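Work package 3, deliverable 3.1, input record:
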Amino acid sequence: MSQDKKGGIRRRDFLKIIGVAGGTAAVTGGCSEPVEQLIPYVIPPEGIIPGVPNWYASTCRECPAGCGILVKNREGRAIKIEGNPKHPVNKGASCAQGQAMLQGLYNPDRTRSPLLLNDLGKRRPTGWENAQTLLAEKIDEIRKKGQNGRIVFLSDNVTGTLGALIDDWMEAIGGVHISYETYAYEPLREANKRTFGIDKIPTYNIDKAKYLLSFGADFMETWLSPTYYTTQFSDMHSFRDGSMGKFVHVEPRASLTGVNADEWVSITPGTEGLLALGIANVIVSEGLSQRGGELSGLLGGYAIDKVSEATGVSTDTIRQIAREFSSMQPSLAIGGGTAMTSTNATETLIAINILNYVAGNIGVTIDFGRTLNTDGISPFRDILSLVDSMSDGGVDLLMVYNVNPVFTLPKSAGFEDAISRVPFVVSFSSFMDETTEKAHLIMPDNTTIESWGDFIPSAGIHGLIQPAMTPVFNTKSTGDVILAVTANIEDLKEKYKEASYYDYLRESWKTAYSSQAGLSFDSFWNKALENGGYYSDVQPVQVSLSGGLSGAALPEAEFSGDGDYFLIAYPSYKYYDGRGANKPWLQELPDALSTGVWDSWVEVHPDTASRLGVELGDYVVIESPQGSIETQVYPYPGIRPDTVAVMIGQGHTSYGRYAKDRGVNPVGILPLATDKLSGGFAWFTSKVKLTRTGKHAQFVQTQYTTHQHDRGIAQEVTLTEMQKGLPPVDHELPGFYPPKEYAKYRWGMAIDLQKCTGCGACITACYAENNIPFVGKELVAKRRDMAWIKIERYFEKSDNKAGFETRFLPMLCQHCGNAPCEPVCPVYATYHNPEGLNGMVYNRCVGTRYCSNNCSYSVRKFNWFQYKFPEPLDWQLNPDVTVRGVGVMEKCTFCVQRINYAKDQAKDKGRDVLDGEVQVACAQACGSDAIVFGNLKDPESKASRLSKNERGYKVLHTLNTQSSITYLKKVKWDKA
Amino acid sequence: MRRRIKLLLVPVLSIFVFAGFYFSDRNAESSDKGPVQPVRFSHKIHAGEDQIPCQYCHSFVDVSPNPGIPSVQRCMGCHTHIAGRDVDYDFNGTTINIQAEIAKVRDFWAKKEPIPWIKVNSMPGYVHFNHKRHIKRGFDCAVCHGDVADMDQVHRVNRFNMGFCITCHTENARSHEELTSLKDCLTCHY
């Protein structure tokens, strides 16, 4: 071996030695398998069989809709959420937020134990005993001062037992309970009070309506109960027996709900009420309806020309809507979103009520029997007086539960400053959010999946919440904390006899419900647990118009700020009011319209963008008198040139690694304005300035084109064509090889584009079921997102009023009978299985990526890295699905683990798999029933019958891929 | 010349490396020792002499893909009453005291700690094997696991590679249709 002068080893020789030594190490020691351990239970938990899932019925608390859920538990861990088919709200469907609940449960940034702020300003973990004693002492101290109202419990609208407990507790300790809902629907209640004398929000029967006219109501996103109304809408709007309902959406911006409408009518901001009265006027003056004569005096002031001028909606359109609204009976008009958040919101909604009355919809499509449980929500002026009181030192102790007002209230409300003046703030949040940052003591609550509870979203629906697993961290349910703290207060020791909140809950259900069901309490309780709650029928309530309406006036909406653009800060179907932003699945779920991920953007009309000299990805500053935000431009044809829109939910300054410092919060720059009549917060009152900054960055989205480039991917037929009957199309093209034979099963799918709303619940459900990693913004920017199912959205030129129409198409592996990916794989890692699946064998894959290059549908995803699931997010992984490693290709498997499970269960019963027994994750989650999965060999299966539908077609069928997925063309309303 | 030797080194070394892989693998297979467990639990005594059926401990084998390993509570179900003989016992060539081994189980139980058994047979994460289907079809545990009733220390009798599975599937398929499904990759790999 050559040595250099100093006697050391030369670099090359060193490498040689290392090489040989490494090889020897591999020979001698490298081949033994790693020692794996088998850890048994010490005491086996009752009812758990390793390898067999248990399902627990519970209630979702991600938004106030209160859908029923089933939580799948494997070996003690919750691994999947599904909608509860027995629940009257969502009937088995779910949304992306509900699916992502698991990433709240397993969020790595959860507060893992009680935390106390010490004198040095550092948070230190403390024990529950200590925290409870401390809180009890504080309460005792304040009570001794002898002044009531110095303790405030600020929560969301906690209905049911916990709400009652908080009320009762506050009364006992001389405190006040304030229920703050970000979206409180105050104008809607006020309008109903003034129109019908009933201070409630009814159930709208969209499914019964033949014509739906929405004034800004984003009922597929956040409005009242989105999953409920999505299922109803799908029912009303699906093409059946030669007809379908029509949906017209009126809003300055085409929201996700708006683009699903047959017509989107762009309207001057703040004039929705005018339009409603204008339509009502046409109906009454042209004698299109029997009703409304008594209102002709009021309506006479809304002549069609005047209304058209103010709203920017043409007289033809107004007449057309009036005719359709009165002739396509029953019809329904609803108001929400921008129509509910101006300074004239209540009057606007009264106008919409009048329109419904004139068309005869009250009591038909509007049911005041099953009303929403909004009674407990405190008026917005209570929140404002709380801010005043806190600033003036009138609050000694503030307890915050399940709300984040520092984030969700505009800066101009002054909550952030006010809370800093409260001497002691307790937060029950399990997450370090902006409000919790201000807390002195954090007593983290269990998440819904870990706790007992109940929730009453609307009359007659008593949802039960039961724990589906033991708490992940050292958290404690707030009900239990309240009981324990009360027991620590000297003179209230005996107040609550129950040892735990579970006992308290049972006791409360005992008094309230046992007599109603005619069962022993235990069997009643067990049945309620099994069904996810207790549901009773509610008799419809007839309402009539109050007399004083004929003198009602409609003031103009007020906007402040000297900018040129109206600013819409719209609630997000992914993040709601910001609470969803800490869940990576939701961050990586592409926005339905822009397909943007992990960030904020401002929607600007293309004409406005060119006037400003900005393009996709350019940064602009949005400035209001209350502040400014800087974000990227997304040119969007579905918004008025004088309006811009930013989604609410991003722009957190805290709230964990996935939410913090990401995007902007438009609420921050809103002025503190209220709806004049109801006093509710008016979100839509700001006019802003837009200035280009000259900065540009890639706008990270998952689909960079909005055109189909004449490939006919998402197809459409008109209603007239449908009613004439479509000519039969032969999908089979002649092939070089003989057709494939299938014995018992050929798995396939039918996707109805008429039903798909683009909501993305299927995408998140797929992430959850199939252990799909989230990759983050930087990798999505390089087109390396791993979603097995994506929603392609296309903006097509159209002759409708908007000038464009939107088509959504769920795209996933087509499981081709003649797959382009298969013959190019050099190692047979992908192949056609005897049941029609395009199999992907991970352990064979060597990562050439030929298959993905050759896939006509771009649905194959490659693992460029070993993706991480930071603990405990990995607890969520489905044990029935392989976690793929680096260098491996993957794609939709048609949930083969569920197919195998169903076959296993069927074999136990000695029969074949029946139709409906295999539900793939995406089809299960779908609220509009757009995706149907089944056996195509069974001519009676639902999927099989739909595949033969005359609207059916295969995407890119000229390639003769013989795909297993049949798409059903969207049906376009083309009749006047 | 020197360069040639260097070049020759490459194939020679490769042969060594691969031979190493081959032999080490062989050694692992031919080993009848099995891993040394934290408690010298004798299947020979329990399943052999005492004739306890496999399913008494591995109780989920016919209802779940996983057979189930007995909980410490299940061990104590008997060993609360059975302290074992205070005798030396030849456990695969190692002398152990039966009573002392049972005392270890009691210790785990007293501390409420699980016994960290070492896996004898292991499947990679990309293989989904279902015990239930095989038991319901009427296969005896011994077909794959060997005559456990005659082993003190359980060791691997068959190497569960794909050849082992497919051979058995081919031999036992009752029809062509069943064979097709039993040889399908997606039956186990997903």
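Residues 25-31 of chain B have pLDDT under 50 and may be disordered.
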